[in-house]
């Protein structure tokens, strides 16, 4: 039985305010994270989420003085309210992609955000999208994962923006932060906090490798050999749909559209491997 997720306080520096936008792709809704050093009145707000007055009022009440708004990637359920909320709070918006920024510079990989004693490291983690970024709160041994890791299930690789090779590299990078003892818990942008980051990240790799093997097997059933899977063949949307119908036959068809994004990413990966 799935336990409902409502957000709350995590570690000494994290507070999650859940946005009221539940759905197939957003799970319980978008997690807006407020990061603040204990005793400080200044914060960083991550992913303000949708333009919903009650939600933004709740975020503002928790956040106090907002030094900056940052976004984990460009998808609408994370960024719709970013500019208007930042204007309300008197700060700018920052993302890895300059197109997501407003009155502020883009984030850079490895940059340290310092706000009122709080230190948050920017970790570029492309895969779900090209501009996906995670945030390491090392003092709490927590990694905010955006949509690269979800609190339930596994994420979608949004082809052609998302890319499977980058996804594998980013999951490995996130796993190394756990191995090094810099992170332990994962704070996702959808769904509950994950206490055992190592186990979750290992599962993500195993799951994706298993899906990749299933896609290869489906191609065989469809009469395609590896040498026939040229990039132009891999981009055929009809092929992706046929593979989804084989690999995801036991999955609710309402999820096939999202599955097709990931299958197209897997086909592109196999075509150049």
Given the C-alpha coordinates, what overall shape results?
A: elongated
User: Kindly state the mean pLDDT as a whole number?
Assistant: 94
Q: What order do the strands of the largest sheet run in, or round the barrel if closed? A: 1-2-3-4-5-6
Main sheet summary: 6 strands, mixed
Q: What name does the CATH topology of the largest domain carry? A: Metallo-beta-lactamase, Chain A
Instruction: Give the structural class.
Output: alpha/beta
CATH H level, superfamily name of the largest domain: Ribonuclease Z/Hydroxyacylglutathione hydrolase-like
C-alpha Rg (nearest Å): 19 Å
What is the H/E string? EEEEHEHHEEEEEHEHHHH
Number of contiguous helices? 8
Integer count of domains: 2
Measured as a percent range, the helix fraction is 25-40%
Distance between the termini: 39 Å
Low-confidence stretches: none
CATH architecture designation of the largest domain: 4-Layer Sandwich
- What is the CATH domain class of the largest domain? Alpha Beta
E-strand count = 11
Strand content: 15-25%
Keywords:
273 residues; alpha/beta; Metallo-beta-lactamase, Chain A; 2 domains; 11 strands; 19% strand; elongated
Describe the secondary structure blueprint for this structure:
Elements: E1 7-10, E2 14-18, E3 31-35, E4 42-46, H1 53-63, E5 65-70, H2 76-79, H3 82-89, E6 93-94, E7 112-115, E8 118-124, E9 133-137, E10 142-146, H4 164-179, E11 185-188, H5 197-221, H6 231-234, H7 237-247, H8 256-272
Parallel strand pairs: 4-5, 5-6, 10-11
Antiparallel strand pairs: 1-2, 2-3, 3-4, 7-8, 8-9, 9-10
Helix pairs in contact: 4-5, 5-7, 7-8
